[in-house]
Amino acid sequence: MKKNKVISPFKPATHKHQECLTSAIKAAKAHCDISGLRLTPLRQRVLELVWQSHEPVKAYDVLDQLKQGHSSSAPPTVYRALDFLQEQGLVHKIESLNAYVGCGNPEEIHSGQFFICRDCGFVAELDDADISGLIEKKANRFGFKVDNKMVEINGHCQECRDSGK
Amino acid sequence: MKKNKVISPFKPATHKHQECLTSAIKAAKAHCDISGLRLTPLRQRVLELVWQSHEPVKAYDVLDQLKQGHSSSAPPTVYRALDFLQEQGLVHKIESLNAYVGCGNPEEIHSGQFFICRDCGFVAELDDADISGLIEKKANRFGFKVDNKMVEINGHCQECRDSGK
DNA sequence: TCTGTAATGTTATAATGTAACATTATTTGG
DNA sequence: CCAAATAATGTTACATTATAACATTACAGA
């Protein structure tokens, strides 16, 4: 079953982000319910902080915000929550930035393709079977068995190009 | 002009690595000569250290080795040399490992596709126009202008699979 | 040879991430 | 329900990765 999904598109600055956030939290709750996992208040709070925007968020920035209202937070607090969220596909790590973005599609495990705008910082995620399949195909040619694919593309999004930044 | 190059393949443990190293240094010298750049002894030494194997090498490991014979080395010594080598396409950074590998093809600027074996640590590099082109094509569909592509694939190489690791 | 630039030295510190063990909360079998 | 086991969080300390800022030295071109 081939799928070419746009998991999160670039969006005008005016998009109603609150909707992204609430739907992501709702999806995360559903996902954890079904899987018998605990989306504890701490984990949910970290997820909300990652979802504050479509820009990748740094662990220590999450930590700073988490401390306001949860003063016992320390680096392991954040890294553990992020690890849990990553394992569940609720957030992805952008390796080239050491930063994290929310994923709106936790239902199926995937390693998406990320398009990062150098101007506005937005990250769009695709889960594109053509890209994925081509990488697998090329790997197969030399007997390489793929586990995990990281595709992170830097550039300039349509909106920023239009507005001449 | 389409090209699908294997810049560095997986190789049996018995491959003559000295040859990789000497040819990489030779290519680097030629590249710098042509470009009017200085492959200083320090930079050359760092390049040799990165090329000691086909496994990604960490900056602080380079530093430790560099200190033996060049006691004034400090972190900036290594990072500056690595930055220079990256700009010249003589090494690539593997973002998901915070580590560096040599590139045998400095002639044309490219951002390759890296296949990293989880068992033996080897990294193979392709510069595959099909993968690259497909990513560009998908990006174009939503008006994204690509600057730089990072493709890092984890998995298991043929040799390790054969030897049942 | 002078002079500007590039490269390197040096010190300090920022940013990112983990180990190890203590404590608290939750689940589960009796 | 209770006790034991497990999971989650707290806490301290430290390891790893990377950069800022300024001083000094080496080199290339006029």
Distance between the termini of chain A: 40 Å
> What helical percentage do the residues of chain A reach?
40-55%
The class by helix and strand makeup of chain A works out as alpha+beta
- The fraction of residues in strands of chain A falls at 15-25%
What is the CATH C-level name of chain A?
Mainly Alpha
Question: How many structural domains in the coordinates of chain A?
Answer: 1
The largest pleated sheet of chain A is described as: 4 strands, mixed
Using only CA atoms, what is the Rg of chain A?
17 Å
Order of strands, main sheet of chain A, comes to: 1-5-4-6
Unreliable spans of chain A: none
**Most extensive chain contact?**
A-B, 36 and 36 residues
**Element string of chain A (H = helix, E = strand):** EHHHHEEEEHEH
Count of separate DSSP helical elements of chain A: 6
From the spread of the alpha carbons, the general shape of chain A counts as globular
In CATH, the architecture of chain A is Orthogonal Bundle
Mean pLDDT of chain A: 94
Quaternary assembly: homodimer
CATH H-level name of chain A... which superfamily? Winged helix-like DNA-binding domain superfamily/Winged helix DNA-binding domain
Look up the CATH topology of chain A: Arc Repressor Mutant, subunit A
Count the strands of chain A?
A: 6
What does this molecule look like?
The structure is a homodimer of 165-residue chains. Chain A is an alpha+beta fold and 165 residues long. Chain A has one domain: Arc Repressor Mutant, subunit A, CATH 1.10.10.10. Chain A contains six helices and six strands. In chain A, strands 1-5-4-6 form a four-stranded mixed beta sheet. A two-stranded antiparallel ribbon of chain A has the order 2-3. In chain A, strand 4 (113-117) and strand 5 (123-128) form a beta hairpin. In chain A, helix 3 crosses helix 4. The longest helix of chain A is centred in the N-terminal third of the chain and has 19 residues, at 17-35. The interface between A and B is large, with 36 and 36 residues. The structure holds a DNA duplex (30 and 30 nucleotides).
